[in-house]
Amino acid sequence: MTDRELVGGIVVAQRPRRADARRNFDALLAAARDAFAEKGAEASLEDIARQAGVGIGTLYRNFPTRRVLFETVYADEVDALCRLADELTDAPPWDGLATWLRRFVDYTVTKRAIRDALSGESDIFVACRRAMLDAGEPLLLRAQAAGEVRSDMSFDDLLRLISGVTGAAYVDTEQRDRVFGITLDGMRTRPAPGKP
């Protein structure tokens, strides 16, 4: 089984079969993602259940421990990034990469909250990282091959750059988006001096 299949299978394996139970599961995932992004890993499970419109018992039936909830939210975020990379394979190279990186910025907010709870040695964390690299790296390579992105940058360099930019404290999201735009601009290739 590949890392990508493992990551995609985490949520699928846990998602209930009954439609009403699936709705509750999905509502809990969405509420947990929002809560972790807003309040960090210490977000209240009771508040997550309340936000999802279910009781705490429903939360524990779906996610028996806080760690299982962290792993599932994290895997779901990475799986969404992987699926987006698949959807962007036919997009113009620069547009595909830039679109994927915008989604990666959103992912880093949730990741920061969960990273410490899931130590870097977690099997899920390691599989998610490898799956994300396998899905996103082709977008960078395509943009580099098209001559639209600097060739002296690895995908790991790119992820660290974007993570660094998104990890800073900003006055507001407008400032964060502006700095992200400057970062994207700095990745683009430039014509040689004297050439159009």
From TrEMBL:
Name of the protein this chain belongs to: TetR/AcrR family transcriptional regulator
Keyword DNA-binding: yes
Keywords, alphabetical: DNA-binding, Transcription, Transcription regulation
Stored SUPFAM superfamilies: Homeodomain-like (SSF46689), Tetracyclin repressor-like, C-terminal domain (SSF48498)
DNA-binding interval(s): 44-63
Limits of the HTH tetR-type domain: 22-81
Superkingdom in the source lineage: Bacteria
